[in-house]
Amino acid sequence: MVQSKAPTVEAYLAELEPERRGLVAALIKAIEARIDPGYELTMAWGMPTWVVPLDRYPTGYLGNPAQGVPYLSVASQKQYLAYYHPGFDADPALAEWFRGAWAQTGLPLSLGRSCLRLRPTAPIPYALLGELAGRVGLEEHLDRYEQARAGR
Hints:
152 residues; alpha+beta; Aspartate Aminotransferase, domain 1; 5-stranded antiparallel beta sheet; YdhG-like; YdhG-like domain-containing protein
């Protein structure tokens, strides 16, 4: 899928083919069940993205007061579903935990620096991905973001 211009998550889902819509909707539901409720689900960069709300962090992402600091995104790409999480790259302990938990699924792992690629034709471990979303609370994420910005 080319980057979506959908203004809402509902509109994004409506753009998807029915099979993909069901997979992405199930992934969003699994994340919503476990993620810190302080995050806000919105559209950013053409995909559903959980961000730190601007009322909590008005400086915004990279100093842009119109964009919340991103935490997690999901997207339907041409060949796979994408699960973007900064912890894969920024948090070695979290990445190690995830690799071990993923190995228990018996599924092949396709992981980039911050992107887990999920084959839509393979089983998707929704509970594990929901658990991963819930492992970094909003305050911890903001602390890491501010430390990274200070270390530029």
